[in-house]
Specification:
143 residues; alpha/beta; DHBP synthase; nine-stranded mixed sheet; 9 strands
């Protein structure tokens, strides 16, 4: 099986989560709409910078644990976690989502049974990311 088809369970830069390049499969695991958008996580800003308004590039470059929603409704986060970035560098980029059923609390048994690959150790000592919506010149805090 190719890396791009696998679902990884790992400690991301913000929480324990599922990571994959297969958005459809992640949404099926979480039992939510197949076309629901997911956050793209990248190891460096180079993977995404051409899509960011120049007025926001400095803020994005300096931010950690922050998810950005672009005007085209796509969202991304640049990971600041060195261990998590090892996986992202192998993939180039990946969709990232919390390791739980949609709307439910984290359940380790569910998470372990849903993933193809588990990257240990799993520890959940981080807070969720801040979410900022980037406009042409303004920024709106979503979470």
């Amino acid at each position: 099986m190719q890396l791009s088809n696998l679902v990884f369970l790992t400690k991301t830069d913000t929480a324990i989560g599922f990571v994959s390049q297969d958005a459809k499969r992640l949404n099926l695991i979480k039992e939510r709409s197949i076309d629901k958008p997911l956050i793209i996580t990248v190891p460096t800003l180079r993977n995404i910078s051409s899509r960011i308004q120049s007025t926001h590039k400095n803020r994005v470059r300096r931010s950690t644990k922050t998810t950005f929603i672009l005007p085209n409704k796509k969202s991304f986060r640049v990971s600041s976690d060195k261990r998590h970035n090892k996986l992202l560098e192998k993939l180039g980029w990946a969709y990232s989502t919390s390791a739980n059923l949609s709307g439910a609390e984290y359940n380790e048994e569910f998470a372990l049974n849903s993933a193809d690959v588990v990257i240990w150790p799993l520890s959940n000592n981080s807070s969720p990311s801040i979410i900022l919506k980037l406009g042409k010149s303004k920024i709106k805090k979503v979470r």
